[in-house]
Amino acid sequence: MSYNRTTAGSGSRATGRSFEYGRTHVVRPKGKHQATIVWLHGLGDNGSSWSQLLENLPLPNIKWICPTAPSRPVAIFGGFPCTAWFDVGELSEDGPDDIEGLDASAAHVANLLSTEPNDIKVGVGGFSMGAATALYSATCCAQGKYGNGNRYTIDLSVVIGLSGWLPCARSLRNKIEGSHEAARRAASLPLLLCHGKGDDVVQYTHGEKSATVLSSTGFRNLTFRTYNGLGHYTVPQEMDDVCNWLTLCLNLEGPRS
């Protein structure tokens, strides 16, 4: 199932830029609906490819929402346009941060989750650039606001990042440690980071550093899993780890529910 959504919500309107999002694919739960997770694809990809993989996971109680990023000029490709959650000059935490683009995509995720029932747990996950956006959403959730100062209103239950990195890593410590409430939220938010040691697109060291920065700034409920020989893609072992972690963190019922 899919539908079109072409507005990014308050995050993009506040910056004066409008982003036209592509098609959003929804995987309905096969059992009792207990959780909804927005899953974000990588650079140049679309929501369809991940929806097909997620549909076959043994997680019948999760509804997956797989949006498609806007097509925009991307610096790492010399300004050539492709689907991207934000502009990026290099796939690491070392490059300049496109706060405007990150805020718009984090707001788009929040909008997609805002209509879920109150008794449903919500989360965000992603791969590569999608993972970076998911981790940025985690920091917005902890701070209670976007990078532009607008209020972030979604209470995330889980965040997953596969083969990604942490945007705005350099300034995160001051933002979290400067607020007792932000520190409390950061400490209670479960995060799962996974990274292959053979990744030649987003180097393993960037994933490792992101996990270290998040842990050291107060995200204490963080699991970092590594995979020898894994490149910039996912494998069944990694997705099994994701399934087991989600089942535990979200207290999901079994397949017969």
Automatic annotation (TrEMBL):
GO terms for molecular function: hydrolase activity. Pfam families: Abhydrolase_2. This is Phospholipase/carboxylesterase/thioesterase domain-containing protein. InterPro entries: AB_hydrolase_fold, PLipase/COase/thioEstase. Residues 25-249 form the Phospholipase/carboxylesterase/thioesterase domain.
